Amino acid sequence: xxxxxxxIGIVGLGRLxxxxxxxxxxxxxxxxxxxxxxxxxEELAWAREELGVEETYEDFDDMVQNADIDAVFIVSxxxxxxxxxxxxxxxxKHVFSEKPIGLDLAAIKHTQTVINQHPDLKFQLGFxxxxxxxxxxxxxxxxxxxxxDITLIRxxxxxxxxxxxxxxxxxxxxxxxxxxxDMSIHDIDVIRWFTGKEIDKVxxxxxxxxxxxxxxxxxxxxxxxxxxxxxxxxxxxxxxxNAAHGYHVETEVIGTKGMLRVAQVPxxxxxxxxxxxxxxxxxxxxxxxxxxxxxLSEEKAFVDSILKDTSVGITAEDGLQGTKAAxxxxxxxxxxxxVKVDDVDKKVGA
Length: 350
Fold this sequence. Notes:
Layout: E1 6-11, H1 15-26, E2 31-37, H2 41-51, E3 55-57, H3 60-64, E4 71-74, H4 81-90, E5 94-97, H5 105-116, E6 123-125, H6 133-143, E7 150-160, H7 164-171, H8 179-182, H9 185-195, E8 199-207, H10 214-217, E9 222-229, E10 234-243, E11 248-255, E12 259-262, E13 273-275, E14 278-280, H11 287-290, H12 292-308, H13 316-335, E15 339-340, H14 341-347
Parallel strand pairs: 1-2, 1-4, 2-3, 4-5, 5-6, 7-10
Antiparallel strand pairs: 7-11, 8-9, 8-15, 9-10, 11-12, 13-14
């Protein structure tokens, strides 16, 4: 008997939304991009004309009430994630949501309750590094004890300088959630994933040197953080938006018996160019290029979890803990002091 097709609706067709939409429409087996929602008419026209999407909506709730849709991909701005997760779950749809799960801890916990009320529905968060071949291999080495017990993790996430002007325009008109929630959330998740431990306390600093206009927007161009986990394991984060050479994502894990690095140099491929300029290794220029395989793998994992009734192991709790640590980093920067992660939880009355 032929395997059934999972019909999917997507909300949000910005840069990342277009990646997910294109993959679902063209490259994910047993998936069909049935519907799309956007408040931008040009994006809906793109979905119809370029991807052949049959149904388009301006209102998310109208889309999730469509009985033909099995699942929803949420790639909207962060502030919409929680209400859209709840709306989709209550309409009986499986949900894939991009990070962060939300911006408010009490609201995240409420949404966790809604998710738990639907054990028959799948929920997955978009922490794509867990599906990147290099990170998966590094995690396997750590789990096998190849570098002993972890003592320190250092992780960089720096966007290319080529995107700074557009980000400055965005930052002066909207709220990204802050550098650490917007950028470091992936590093935080990798740290929790590799160690299996929660983050206990943090300290963060930052500055706007190339783009001081971000001071007025309450945003950061570059930030750094020192973190201590519950078992005293250490972590160092660097987050930024101004890498001159391209898109720089790098992780180093130091253990008692060795160390490993993921993408020590953010290489585009295995090509080395040798010419009058010297010896050059081209680098990745943006996240769609660097994590193309990871995005596709996480989408396939979500569809397979629905068809095979399995779990991918990324839960709303991962989203909650990641957001909590990122908010603690933002508070540590604002207070110029060490912040206990659990104190952030108490502050919002959760």
